[in-house]
Batch of 2 targets.
Target 1
Amino acid sequence: MENRQRVIGLLGGMSWESSAEYYRLLNELTKERLGGLRSAHCVLRSLDFAEVERTQVEGRWDDAGRLLAEAAQALEKAGAELLLLCTNTMHKVADVVQAGVGIPLVHLGDATAEAVIRRGLTTAGLLGTGFTMEQDFYRDRLARHGLEVLVPPAEDRAQVHRIIYDELCLGVVREESRQIYREVIGRLVEAGAGGVILGCTEIELLVSAEDSPVPVFPTTRLHVEAAIARSLSTTD
């Protein structure tokens, strides 16, 4: 009997570049897992990132939560049986999104923390948008799993954030920016980070394991792996 896949709902567009990575990885890893011509059962709802970004900058997180919850409801109506919020930053409103639907949301922070712990690490550096690095919604989720989370100093955080929004979200990948990230990672390692969480889905377009002296944790891939495992599970 063929493995039955639950339909995965992708709430994306934040940015579409990283959502394309979600779609690619979801299908590649499903084929690796199941073989042959197998691909993922999924539906995608892609938002206009400019609208979402305005709510971030203006601090209108309640509006952002409503917007994403409505999009999640559309995915559920389209047949999704579990949900992926394809962005680290917007997990700030993950609880609102989950409350708006009757299907489980696979939380990116949980998938990431579990991967770090499996490597035997207790301290990890966090790279992401300024919202992700500076606010507590993401760091606290990781800390629930027993992780100590280190973030870069203010100047480094500003550089990391700028490169995400001014370059990576626009599909621009620059070697100079890769070098900046390498230097930021180096300083996190000097501060005690045993690994580095690439806590923004776009960062994986720029940084890989080769750019770090310690293990890196690509949150997009980890999120997709967790979703596939959940999709194929017969126990929940």
Note: Residues 80 and 169 are 26 Å apart (CA to CA).
Target 2
Amino acid sequence: MLTEKQLIRLAPWLVILFLLILWEAICTGFKVPEYLFPAPSAVWQAGLARWEPILMHATQTLFTTLAGFAIAVVVGLLLGIAVGLSPLVYKALYPLLVGFNSIPKVAFVPVLVVWFGIGTVPAILTAFLISFFPILVNVATGLATLEPELEDVLRSLGASRLDILRKVGLPRAMPYFFASLKVAITLAFVGSVISETVASNLGIGYLMMAASSSMDMALVFAGLIVIGAMGVVMYELFAFFEKRLTGWAHRGESSAL
């Protein structure tokens, strides 16, 4: 008999297995053409048969995603600190940042292609543009919600604004920061793949566009699964670091999402 903890650990795998079986049964039972909706068995075969190009393009997508994400972390953290600490900066920049974030990032891809040409750079910049805003908002929220009473006590003890930021503000914002990283890394994959489908000759996005043009839907779905798997791995990696570095902010293991 499985314990509750074992069942919790197995639950994601059981759900995935159930969905795969259901997917296979629907495709087989209704005789769905492979060029419309391939069964998991066909996707698996396509992945095995073309694992080398899939690996090459997946490596490119992972590189562009991580590069854009790294830039987003630096820019989002710095802007988040500025917005969270200064009401003046908040009033000046926040409306512009919200308006910028409301623009679909795919609209920037043609502009980036004109500026930098087709290739890696537009994918990196698109990943950055789509992923820095959650980091900025969460860091700013963590700093802006610091209790005023705590600030007053620290100032009465002689602490400067820098001391408050370094010893209280930033640690207080760490749970918000790690929560934003888990969201931003998934968005970074979206940005890089969008750019690859429009303006690149490498990457999973390009592979999927090339496969769809020849109606090779099994390869398209293999690319989708690879992107999803990379996103899950990176999400879990940041969740691991969040749990280790900000465990004090969570009362129980189940609260560390």
Note: The chain has one domain: 62-245.
